[in-house]
Every structure is written in C-alpha cells, then in structure tokens.
Amino acid sequence: MDAAGQVADAGGRGQTLRVRGGGTKYGWGTPAGDPDVEVSTSELDRIVEHNEGDLTAILEAGVPLARAQEQFASAGQMLALDPPLGEGAAATIGGVIATGDSGPLRHRYGAPRDLVLGMTVALSDGTVAKSGSTVIKNVAGYDLAKLFSGSFGTLGLIMRVAVRLHPQPHQTVTAVGRANDPEVVARGASELAHASLEKECVDVRWENGSGAAMARLGGVTAGPQAEAATRLLHEAGLDTELVEDDFDLWARQRDSQRSADRAVVRVSGLQTELARTMRAAESLGGSLVGRASLGISWITIDPQRIADLRGALAPFKCVVLDAPREVRASLDVWDAEPSPLAQRVKQRFDPAGVFAPGTFAGGI
Amino acid sequence: MAHKLIEELRAACGDDNVVTHPHQLRTYESDGLLRYRVTPRAVVLPGSAEEVQKVLRACHEAEVPWVARGSGTGLSGGALPVEEGVVIGVNRMNRVLEVDLPNQRLVVQPGVTNLDVSKAAGPTHFYPPDPSSQIVCSIGGNVAENAGGAHCFKYGFTTNYVTGLELVLPDGELIEIGGKELDQPGYDLLGAFVGSEGTLGIATKITVRVVPVPEAVRTLVAFFADTTHAGRTVSDIVSAGIVPGAIEMMDSLAIEAAEGATHAGYPADAGAALVVELDGSEAECEHRFEEVRKVCERNEASSIRIAQSEEERALIWKARKAAFAAMGRVSTHYYVQDGVIPRTRLPEVLGRIEELSKEYGMRVANVFHAGDGNLHPLVCYDGHVEGEAERAEELSGQILAACVDAGGSITGEHGVGYDKKGYMPRMFDEPDFEAFQRLRCAFDPAGMANPGKVMPTPRLCGEVPGPYRQHPLEAAGIAERF
Q1: Which DSSP string corresponds to A84-152?
Q2: ipTM of the complex
Q3: What domains are defined for chain B?
Q4: What is the mean pLDDT of each run of 10 residues along chain B (482 residues)?
Q5: Which one of B344, B414, B439 has the shortest CB-CB distance to A142?
Q6: Which of A131, A146, A224 lies closest to B432 in CB terms?
C-alpha cells in the first residue's frame, strides 16, 4: 500500500500514526506512546521536475535534501535551505518542511514556509488535496502549504512539494569578528544586520567565554563586500578575519544546532536581546549559535538547566528540540499555551486525531 | 436587516461612523474592480480593535454577513459588499503604533497606507512589497490579498514580511498570532491568514519586518523590436544568476499608452520595453548592471536608457506604474488580468494571447512582472457597444486558461475575490476546495466573513455534532450544505 493509502487505512480504522522521513528529527516534540502505524515516506523519493529556466522544482516528500541539492547544484542552483541534515545526511525535504527547520541561509532566503510554492497532502479521511501552485507567484486559494510547514506531521501527510530555487552565489567570502564580551559581539552583529550589503547569512556564535559575529557575502564582488563588513566589525571593536574558504565555518554553525547528548533549545528572541541571550547561555554553561538579524538562537545546554534558561530568557519562547526522552517528558518542550484556534484547525483537518496526537504545541 | 443591528453599530462606533444613507453607501458599492456593484445595508468605520470586536459580535448575533475593506483598490472584487450585509472600513485605524528599527520591526494599524509603512521605516530601512497602488492601498488590504508588486521577484511578498497579527475572529474574539519574534511554537496561522482575502477575520494590528535600504540602485530601460527579444533578455539575465530588484516588461500597446500619459520619452515604434532595476551594494550593483547592459545589447536592444539621476529613475517607473491608468487613452474600457506562467513559457503564451486578440478583434496590451512570470494583459473594449464587455471577459478567461495550461496560475497578486472564483476549478479540484474549506471553518464556522468570494461555489461548514439548524445563508438560498 502506498503512503496515502496507509494514511486512509489508518484513518478508517481510527489508528494513530506518525510520519517518518529520514528519521533525523523523530525525537523532537512531546514524547507520546508508540503510534499504531508508522508511515514512511521512503518510497516517495522522486525528483519529479527540476525546471532550471524557471528556478522551480517539484519533489516528493521522501527525497533526501542532500540528493536534491546535488541535482540543483549541477545547474548552478540551490534550494536555499541548509538545516543540519542529521545522521547520514538523511534529512528529507518533507521532514525539513514539516519541522520548519532551517540553517544560516535563512537570513536571506527565509524559512521552509517561504520557499514552498505548493503542496499535496493526504488527510486522515483519505482526502488527497493540493494547494498553491508550481510558479513562484500565486495567490489563488488558501496557502495551506504554510499551514502544513512546521506542523510536525499533526495535520496530514506531506506527499509532495513545489519549491522555489535560487542561483548559487557566484562566490562567497565571510567576514568574522571575535570578542570576549557578549555586548561587543552583539554590536558587531547589529552592524552587519543593518549594513547595505549582499548578505547570504548573518550569524553569531558564543561558547566558552568568547563569541563571534559573522557575515557571508555573496556575488561577483563578495571579496570587497566582505572587506567592507570586516571594517564594520573592526569599528565595533571586534578582532576581525576574512575567510575565503568558508564552507567549514558555516557547516559548523549549522551543525551546532544539533546535539547528540545535550539539550538544544531554540529561542524565538530579538536582535536587540542577543547580548542577554548569549549571557544567559554562558551563565548556564551553554553555547549558542544564532541568526543575528532574525533573533533566533539555538542554545546547547545541560538538559537539567532548561528550566533555568527559560526563566532567564522569558518572555521569549524556548522550544526544546534535542533532549533525552525523559527530559522531554518532564516539561513542556513547546513552551506554549493551548490555542483554541489551533485546536479547531487540528479538529477540522484531522477530526479523528490520527496524526501524531499529543506531540505538538498546546497539547495537540 | 434588523434595525437593532444598526443601533448596535452606532452604539459601538458612534453615529458619525455608521453610514446608512443610500447616496453615501454608493461610495462603497465596489472596489477597484468597477464592473460589479452591490449596495451594502450599512458601512461601519470602527476606530479600534475593541470597536471591531463589538461590530463583529453584533453581526454574529444578528447572523449578518460582512465584508472588511481597506482603501478599496483591489482589482478582483474582494471587497465587493454582500447584499444586505455590512461593510467594515478600517480607514480610521491608521496609526503607526511602533517603529522598532533596531529589531527591524514596525507595528501598524490596518488602515495605514503601504507607502506610509515604508516612509515610517525610512530613510535607513524600507518595507519591500510595493503594489502599484501603494500611495493609497492599506496595509490591512495588503495582508488580506498577500500583495506583491514590482520588487517581489527579489524581495518576496507580504506573507514574507508579516511577523505578527492581532486579529478579530468572526465571532468577535480577539487573538494574537506571532509577534516581533519568529518561529513561535504552534501552527503557522500567520501564513494561513495572509492572503485569505478577508474570509477568516479582520487584522487590527500588523507587525511587519523591514530591511535596510540598499546602498545603490541602478535602473535602465531597454527597447526591443518585439517581446520575443525582450523575453530572451530576461531569461539570459536570470540564467546568469542575476536577481534584479525588479524586471518589468511592456509590449507596444502598453508603451503607446504609457508614453501618451507620462511623456517619459519611450520610442513610439518600440515593440517591447524592459525596465531592469538592480539594487544592493555599490560594487555588486555596478558590476552586474554592466552585465545586464551587455545582455540587452546581445539581444539586439534598439536603444538602452540608463537612469543617471533619481529623477530619471522616477520617470522610468512613472511610465511603468502608470500603464494601467494610461490605457484609458487607448481604449474607453479595459479589463485587467493577472495570470502567472512559468517564465520560460512566455513566448508561447504571448503568441496565444495574440491569436486570441485577433480572433476576438480586441486589442490586448501586456504589462509583465517578467522575473516572476506575472502577466497583466489589459483587454481593450468599447463598453458602449452591447455585448463587448461580455466578450472581453470571455477573452480574459481564455487568457487565464492559457496561463493555467502552461502550468501557471489564475492570479499572482490581485486575488481571486469575486471576479475569478469561477476560474478556480481550472486550478483546483473538489478535494482541494474541501481542504480549503476546513481552514475556513476553523476560523469562521458561521460563514459570515466575506461570503461568496474565493470559493467557486458557496459552501457551509459541517457542524460539530448537534441538532440540525438551518443556516441563514441556506434559508436565503445563497449557499447549500455539502
């Protein structure tokens, strides 16, 4: 039976189900009992279309993101999503979209919800429905693709998506500024965030008493632009460096969003509170990577310190991503109040409560 | 409608802010699409979220449908009133509440104009979505329609810039979704609401992201013998990895009209004009602008005009942005379409439009957001001749069919509204509509928010189990239960 058939079947029997892509983020969310059925997207593995001239593609949900990127790269293009790909680089496009995961490229290109043009989903009553389109501009019908992005598989099975692609930057060079004072790092990050440069990424990093603000510049003039960024960092009081071969540096930023043995907490913060966020991580023995101008940070910390971190960063929402199961079971990983409207959305799309009940924000 | 409701609206918003006189109501009988007119029973102009709540609660109690309205510039009849319904104008809610540039956020009320949002962020930052009507159109309307504009190929649409909303749901409940912070836990209800065309509730406070003003902007307009050469130029620019801030095409008839209205100096004999604007860092901009110029030359541009000053840039844009209004000089009546195609299919779709134009004996001008494939054909007709309006509409429909057949969409930025709901089945099937309706029912189970728009056939929400009760729209024969 195909994946949509399995969904309809489970719905018909009133069984609970969870969707599994590459399995790299299967441990996220509120721990719940084992589902009756696990639906794998492994057979939904076709790159259906890659329209080079239109900078769009249609992918089935189970396509590993790494494989799709290889294909796009052969045309000098990319899907501008660079979240950590997990063990064996197994993360699939469906899983990345369902969890709304993102990496440093988010600065310029947005989150999965911003790059998904259309989506086909299977609902628990057997309905297979599409929304959006395969062109980069469209406002016909409700944007259900955004609703399903980041819904952690609690509304339905994402079967296929149409995505927008971008040209790979001609060249990239990164300006890095280092300092031992969170205030100085934050000042450098703010200078980068507000500079009129072609920035692909603007990140911060803090660990073991020192930190860095960094910007990846792209284009045919990446070098001169990175030099300009370096000057801004220098004037803000940071020790600067120009990194031309910057692949590893950004891979490290991305990979620091995951942890196999500690807890990773995603903080929905603000640019102006970056210094405070870094200090909170530092004082609790944690480390941080973040998107400086977007105000989102990932803090890696001893799982026992999560409550303290939330206390220090309130009212910012602190969502626990990676953490041992018993830790996730002992607190609300979502840091969220129940939303009656969200519950009504869940009831309408999955009235039988088939999709991953009890795993999502607000008790959904 | 019961007199009681009018009294409640007056009590909620003050006598001066409730319009019931037939002459005054006529102002509200259509939006920017003048072909459809419906006189509402009343227009109410609330001044705060609390007043919006009172109005929606009163409508909910009275089971009277309502339509929210910004500046009424929409081109799909999205703000067309409902017969015997209430129009809720948000224009009095027109304050910029907070300018937080260090966090790149602005908090505004829905009646603030798009241009005033950008002005409030200036001169260091700006708000990228810039529909042609930006001087008057409201940010609330932009949220409802997910407005785009000339710069969205590079910068994205309204939905990419709204980070928080305060909403009044159709039963009068006030809720907040999102905020200044991104990635708050829970469903992306922001993404679902933006672009929902006023069918899910009324936004009473809007938080948007603004971005630094680019260091440099370079603009040129190049003229070509025909749209084929101009189209090839667009493809060459994009495949060189250049992402222009804007890239706009006009065909000969659009050029003729725009030149007549603005005297921007566009050559009358040009077959196509291409406006290309690059923005970003000074160095990058200069370098790539030179590449763009060479691409234009390689594709046999007959002339290239590079803006040497802000005035010259403004003049180039004036001609482009005036193209719709300027059509009045060419034709007494015209019908604007808003199809989208995969950009690479441009030559065949333009060819098809030309065929249709000949077949119907009607001139069609084309204005095109070329980067993102958003085509605005303007179908010219003489409204004084009986039957011509209908034929123009039919021709427009054929154009949309050609867009969908090419893998595109029936609307890129104007919305479905009332005008294009009949074309929705070209893109979507019954299960898709059924899925849309689930979202609608989560927000508006009673179906009071802008009924009769977006969906091709009105439909009601299945009730949560309970005794059957006839719905007022059902009783009036407007909708049936599925």
Answers
A1: ---GGG--BHHHHHHHT---TTHHHH--HHHHEEEEEEE-TTS-EEEEE-SSS---SS--HHHHHTTST
A2: 0.97
A3: 3-89 (3.30.43.10), 96-212 (3.30.465.10), 216-325 (3.30.70.2190), 331-419 (3.30.70.2740), 424-475 (no CATH)
A4: 88 97 94 93 98 98 97 95 97 98 98 97 96 93 94 94 98 98 98 98 98 95 95 92 93 91 87 95 92 97 95 90 81 91 92 95 93 93 92 95 96 96 96 97 97 93 51 53 43
A5: B439
A6: A131
